[in-house]
Design goal:
Layout (H helix, E strand, L loop, with lengths): L4 E6 L6 H15 L5 E4 L14 H9 L5 H6 L4 H7 L6 E3 L7 H9 L5 E3 L6 E4 L5 E5 L2 E8 L19 H8 L8 E4 L14 H10 L3 E4 L7 E4 L6 E4 L20 E5 L5 E5 L17
Length: about 290
């Protein structure tokens, strides 16, 4: 039997990091398989310092305190969280979104020379540097992942040095990228003009056109799960649903398309599917922390 690498895919967690780990642990129990890696497409909700919350996060946290999950559960070591995490072994790798503590992440990034760097108290969560190829190996399988974090400037935006926007040094790394193969492009934003005219990031468009990776996973648009063929004719561009609930019903089930699984055996053999199992309804907006 040819070994397969199993990679879980999530988008906008907005602090619901424990939920991500819970869903992955449940998937492993239900399927009898193991996850090798989790990829997350930005707006992870990395806010270790309450004084650095942006306005949108403050507003959402007033209604749902789980938006502050990084600060409460992952910024400092807690034995009960460590015990919960011990049910799984995979690393979680994310790109920055526009809702993160970028100054804090900038300081951490400068301390590490590797393509990813740890951000949590348990060593399970790693931020991917924009424009640096990350090669992940499990057993005999290898996958090449490029991350592009933050977002592009909006139409007419003049202050292009805002921390949420892709920075000049990150643009330079993308433009100087020299590699033979990218298997997965992981971004928060979309390619310029791809979803909406005038919106998105030029650097994402560049990578998609030059390297034509089989998969592009992103978040940010606030759409439910949607898959679109990229204009390069090869890439599957996939927007995962935000890790949130359908608040229009009393039971508040998870939105459809929150979690996906990429099965990777190399460029010639791979498949992606959305996790749409009945057990996911147990992780609703009212009691997921107790499941």
């Amino acid at each position: 039997m040819v070994p397969t690498m199993n990679i879980a895919i999530f988008a906008d967690l907005h602090g619901r990091i424990r939920l991500c780990f819970k869903l992955c642990a449940r998937w492993e129990r239900e399927t009898g398989e193991k996850l090798d890696l989790v990829l997350q497409a930005g707006d992870f909700g990395v806010y270790p310092r309450m004084g650095e919350l942006d306005r949108a996060t403050i507003q959402h946290a007033r209604k749902d305190p789980t938006e502050l999950g990084f600060s409460t559960d992952f910024a400092e070591y807690r034995e009960e969280i460590a015990t919960e995490l011990s049910a799984t072994q995979f690393p979680v790798v994310f790109v920055r979104g526009n809702h993160e503590d970028h100054a804090w992440l900038d300081a951490l990034e400068q301390q590490h020379s590797t393509p990813t760097f740890p951000v949590d108290a348990y060593g399970r969560i790693h931020c991917m540097k924009t424009g640096e190829l990350y090669t992940f190996t499990s057993g005999s399988e290898t996958i090449n992942i490029l991350g592009i974090g933050r977002v592009g400037p909006l139409v007419g935006e003049t202050d292009i040095e805002q921390p949420k926007l892709i920075q000049a040094y990150e643009r330079e790394r993308v433009n100087q990228l020299d590699t033979d193969q990218i298997d997965v492009l992981l971004t928060h934003d979309t390619a310029i003009d791809f979803v909406s005219p005038g919106y998105g990031m030029e650097e994402i468009r560049l990578v998609l056109d030059v390297y034509r990776p089989p998969y592009h996973f992103h978040g940010h648009t606030e759409e439910l799960y949607v898959e679109r063929p990229d204009t390069n004719g090869l890439t599957r561009s996939i927007k995962m649903s935000d890790c949130n609930w359908d608040r229009s019903t009393h039971d508040m089930p998870l939105l459809q398309g929150v979690m996906g699984i990429l099965r990777w055996q190399g460029m010639a053999h791979h498949a992606f599917e959305v996790v749409d199992a009945g057990w996911m309804d147990e992780y609703n907006g009212r009691n997921w922390q107790n499941v």
